[in-house]
Amino acid sequence: MSRTALVTGASSGIGAAVATALVQRGYRVLGTSRDPAAVSAPIPGVEYLALDLTDDASIKACAEAAGAVDVLVNNAGESQSGPLEELPMEALRRLFELNVFGAVRLTQLLLPGMRDRGYGRVIMVGSMLASFPLAYRSSYVASKAAIKGFANAARREVSPYGVGVSTVEPGSISTGISERRTQYLAEDSPFRDEYRTMLTALNANEAKGISAAEVAATVVKAVEARQPKPFYAVGSNAPLVFALRRLMPRSTAERMVARRHGLR
Question: What is the pLDDT of residue 93?
Answer without folding.
Answer: 98
